[in-house]
Amino acid sequence: MGGLFRAPKPVVVPPAPQPGPAPAPPPPEQQGEAARAAARDRAARGLEGTIATSARGVLGALPATSRKSLLGE
Fold this sequence. Notes:
Elements: H1 2-5, H2 28-51
């Protein structure tokens, strides 16, 4: 019931520490090489690595079921 008759004490938050100096960016040659290596890795995974979502994967045959052709059927 103290909140009815007295204002709550304010919470004191200490100031955040100053961040250190930012690290120097790598030279453009290393940035380009890293980008090329990442592109090679993505290309090496291929279609199977990006589409397969289960043991059967998306590329497998779908089961034969009747599907709706119009909305409301």
